[in-house]
From TrEMBL:
It catalyses: CDP-glycerol + H2O = sn-glycerol 3-phosphate + CMP + 2 H(+); CDP-choline + H2O = phosphocholine + CMP + 2 H(+); ADP-D-ribose + H2O = D-ribose 5-phosphate + AMP + 2 H(+). The lineage of its organism: Eukaryota, Viridiplantae, Streptophyta, Embryophyta, Tracheophyta. This is Manganese-dependent ADP-ribose/CDP-alcohol diphosphatase. Keywords: Hydrolase, Metal-binding, Zinc. Its cofactor is Mg(2+).
Amino acid sequence: MGSVVKQPLFSFGVIADVQYADIPDGRSFLGVPRYYRNSILVLQRAVETWNQHGNLKFVINMGDIVDGFCPKDQSLAATKKLVREFDKFNGPVYHMIGNHCLYNLPREELLPLLKIPGRDGNAYYDFSPTPGYRIVVLDGYDISAVGWPQDHPKTIAALKILDEKNPNSDKNSPEGLEDVARRFVKYNGGVGEEQLQWLDSVLQDASNSNQRVIVCGHVPMSPGVASKAALLWNFDEVMDIIHKYDSVKVCLSGHDHKGGYFVDSHGVHHRSLEAALECPPGTYSFGYIDVYENKLSLVGTDRMQNTDFEN
Ligand SMILES: Nc1ccn([C@@H]2O[C@H](COP(=O)(O)OP(=O)(O)OC[C@H](O)CO)[C@@H](O)[C@H]2O)c(=O)n1
C-alpha cells in the first residue's frame, strides 16, 4: 500500500508590499531596486496562480498596496485599481494597512476601500476561516505619525515617542540609534493600549475555544526576523501578550522586503515575506500557506522562499 498524503486543514494565499505606482523604476533609501510598474504584474500572476490552485480559502495581503511615490492625484485610482486586481481572486481577500497606504490616503478613505472592518478608523480585526483556527490582523500604525489627522491624540502620542526616542531631525532616519532602538522611526508605528487589550481578549477567547491562531501584521514583531529599523515600536509588549498563549504558533508580516524567518525563545515562528515590489520583471514573489494539524507550510513562488513551520 502506498503512503497516504495528508491533506491540509485549509490553505490561504499570501503576498506582501506590492507598492504599485505608475512611475519609472527606482531605488529604496538604501539603494535596493524597486519596480513600481512591474509589481501589478506580480500581483496578477499571483491571483491567476491562486485561482488555478482552486482550494485556497482566502488570500491575505500584508499591506502597502500602493507606494508613497504614487502621484497624490492618482492615489485613489491606483488603490482602487489594485483592489480590483485582488478581487479577481475567487474568494475572500483580507487587507491590512501599511505605511505606504497611509502616505497615499487617510484612514477614513482607506478602510472602506480595503474593506477593513473596524470602528473609529481602527484597522485591527480577526476572523475564523475554520472552527479550529483564528486569524488576527494587527494595525501596526495604530500609534503613528502618519495616517491620523495632525491634531489626533494618536498622532500626538506618536510624535512624543519619536521625540523621546529619536534625536534626528529627520524622524525617518535611524542614524545613530543602536540595535533595536533603530525601530523608532516614522515609517514604523505601534499598537495602542486598546488594541493590546483587544489582542489579549481575542487570544484568551481563542484559547478557551481550543483554536490555533496566526497573527498577521504589516510591521515585523521580532528582532530576529527583520532589520532592527523595520520593527514594530512596541513589539515587546505585543509579544508578551502572544507568549501568554500557547495557541499562537506563527506571526506573519511584510514591510522589511528582503524576507526573513526566525523562531523565538517561546517557539513562535516569525516570517516576514519577500516584497512583490522588489521583483525584477519576469520574476515573482507570492505564495500560499498549507495549514496542517501539526505544522504550517509556506509554498513560495520564485523569490518567495518555502518555509515549514513545525509546531
Ligand atoms: N534609512 C531611511 C529609510 C527610509 N527613509 C524614508 O522613509 C520613508 C519610508 O521608507 P521606505 O523604505 O520607502 O519604506 P518601506 O515601508 O518600503 O520599507 C521600510 C523599511 O525601509 C524596510 O526595511 C521614505 O520616505 C524613505 O525615503 C529614510 O529617510 N531613511
